[in-house]
Amino acid sequence: LPMAFKDMNARRHIGLQQLSSLALAGRTLLGPVKSCKFIVDESTNQSTLICSAVRLIESLDLTSAAGQLLNETIQAQNKEFKTGMSTLLFLVGAWSNAVLECLQQNVPVSAIVSAMSEGLRSCCERVQCLQIPIHDVKKELCLCCVSPNAFKSKTYPSEHDDLNPQIFLYVQKDISAPEEVIPVNSCSCQGDDCSFNKCLLSPLDSSGSVASLVTPVGDKSTSVLSGNGVTASSCSKQKLTHSRYFSTLGKSHFSRQQDNFEGHHLGQSADPYECYGLGHLAMTLSHGNQTSTKLLQSIAAYQQGRAECSGSSQLNLAEIVTCCLLGLPESYSCVSPGFVTLVSPEQATVIKYFEDKPLRILLMDGDLTEQYRHLGFNRPCNVRTVLEHPSLQESRAGNLWLNSMLDILIRFEVNLVLVKGSVCDNLMEKCIANTILVIGSVARDVLYAFGEVTSAQPVTYLTQLNTSCVGSGARAELWKACDGRAVDLGELVPVRIKAQGIPLLTAVLTTTVGSKMQLIEDQFWTLVYRLHNALKDEKVFLGGGAVELLCLSHIQMLAEQPLQTANTNAVREFHSQWLAASVTEYKTVVLQALASGWNQYLSAVMCNAAKAATELEACTLVDHHLKKAANYGSTSAYILKEFRRGDLLGGASGPFADHREGLKVYDNVTAKIEAWRRALDLVLLVLQSDVEIITGPKRNQLLSSDASSEFMFL
């Protein structure tokens, strides 16, 4: 009889089994040390490199209802937080297996839903003690990494005589390997405004990037942070962690390309620990993503300087864009002021003509095509469309539209057109012939940024154009790499559009491996949103598995509660003696199954990070910590103690492991909790849906069996 029930149960809960199988594919994507996967299209034999749950689910052919629900859940998490999707995917699989185990033990569905929901709700309340305010994190970072009496730093003069030499403060590493110089932001102020000058240097090597707030690992010198009189000193020595074949340190002399862009003085902050805040906070949230961390530190340092007057400490996402350059080494990744994008070689010739000349700019909030109509446009009634998109080359009306649009641009002396949507190819060719640069597919935030500094007003159609809509002061140039040379990638050429005072920053992401391009961009935006979410929440969780370990301990404690106490609580909640008795009877089984999900989560993270050779070894280490926490008297106090020591679940790992004495690992609060809730909600939704559906090859036998009375016919 138990085997028959198990067979029937398994056949009835196909959805949970599908969730478990899909989640298993993303097991290696959990934690800071991820293993990339190649997704192969069987029809075309083309492959895609992925390293995130979002790209994994997008790449799979999800034909089942459970797969579609999983996709929608992950997309909702990604849309709102841009982080926590791998956790969500893993817990969906772990808790699906936990529910299936409960069903095999004849636990009623109502008891599973009630006990699991209550258990997770109790966990969310319990882990609030591990939330750390952002102010306290900044304070700890300053106390660990800032020496108040050290003010020495090496200053190198600029190559340009018209720039203040004090603008470039460098920290040079005292090692025998090739030198690495990282600029630190400073500024010379005149009145309320000052000019932030920037070296386009690589963040990974001495070719450089926008200044970083952090001293490199192993640096024995100090760096003065502008405006606060605070001096940073490193905490640890250099440690070789990579093969020489993967080294990104440059061996040549350092070339610098300098550019001026407006900013505000990084003066005295209302928060005494704000000076060191965003740069190091980004590192604690990076989970080992070194390249993106240094880019984000540069962006955060610049935005901190601009936002100082308003007292805002938020990260402005609208002022950050990315440009992906395929064909350059990853060491060329950097942050560039203005808008960097890719254009055709024909458009690049126009930019060469306009280089170092002020341009009259036009912004278009739509498509620049003859067929484009704005959102909400109503076509005339009683009109039958014979041909929707006539060929412009064969249509006299099309030629008339092209000529009229070109005449408008020439009449208003427009040199540069930024279009939110697509651009008519024939109009593009005519504009190039008349030295008018047109760039399509420009984000709305970029249009807004240029509108603010050039006084240009976006228009929907060119026929709406008037003198007040055209802005001035924009400049275009070919984007130059860290060695000062312009880059030609063959079919596409990177260019930079800028204007005085524009707050826009472009993170230029480079790689020579085409399959890694999407991966690098995803990693960058994930870190950006982690920092954004942390500042928005104004608090962070302890990372490194601390929160999940407390959840595991708490659920196990609830499962071991005396039966009488649990029964009293259940009666109070359900107002029904019969339902309360049912829930109480199975509560221990369900909570233990829920706890197994946390246990599997911690074991997977430790195995992925090579802190444990096998899952059995990882589980043993987790049990060891649980026993020590029980003997300590307070699990949360024990976790806090071990976290401060940096020895929780094996300590730090990744490129920033050497900073473990001064830098801890933190997680987002709201994003993590929402990932838990979404995972459990999805599992319980599929569970309750499966109850109503009869599937499997022996459907008729089930319907004629004694158990058919519990089925609902739809």
> Which ranges are low-confidence, i.e. pLDDT below 50, for 5 or more consecutive residues?
1-11, 146-270, 652-662
Number of helices: 21
The secondary-structure class comes to: alpha+beta
Main sheet, how many strands, which sense, barrel?
A: 6 strands, mixed
> Would you identify the CATH H-level superfamily of the domain at 3-133 and 540-563 and 577-713?
GroEL-like equatorial domain
For the secondary structure, the number of strands is 22
Helix content: 40-55%
**Alpha carbon gyration radius:** 30 Å
Query: What is the CATH architecture assignment of the domain at 3-133 and 540-563 and 577-713?
Result: Orthogonal Bundle
The CATH class label of the domain at 3-133 and 540-563 and 577-713 is Mainly Alpha
Q: What percentage of amino acids are in beta strands?
A: 5-15%
> What value does the average pLDDT take?
76
First-last Cα distance: 27 Å
In spatial order, strands of the major sheet run 14-19-18-15-16-17
Q: Which descriptor suits the 3D outline? A: globular
CATH topology of the domain at 3-133 and 540-563 and 577-713: GROEL, domain 1
How would you characterize this protein structure?
The structure is a single chain. The protein is of the alpha+beta class and 714 residues long. Among the domains are: 3-133 and 540-563 and 577-713, Orthogonal Bundle (GROEL, domain 1), CATH 1.10.560; 320-372 and 399-538, GroEL, CATH 3.50.7. It has 21 helices and 22 strands. Strands 14-19-18-15-16-17 form a 6-stranded mixed β-sheet. Strands 3-21-22 form a 3-stranded antiparallel β-sheet. Strand 7 (188-190) and strand 8 (193-199) form a beta hairpin. The model is unreliable at 1-11, 146-270 and 652-662 (pLDDT under 50). InterPro entries: BBS12, Cpn60/GroEL/TCP-1, GroEL-like_apical_dom_sf, GROEL-like_equatorial_sf, TCP-1-like_intermed_sf. This is BBS12 protein. GO terms for molecular function: ATP binding.
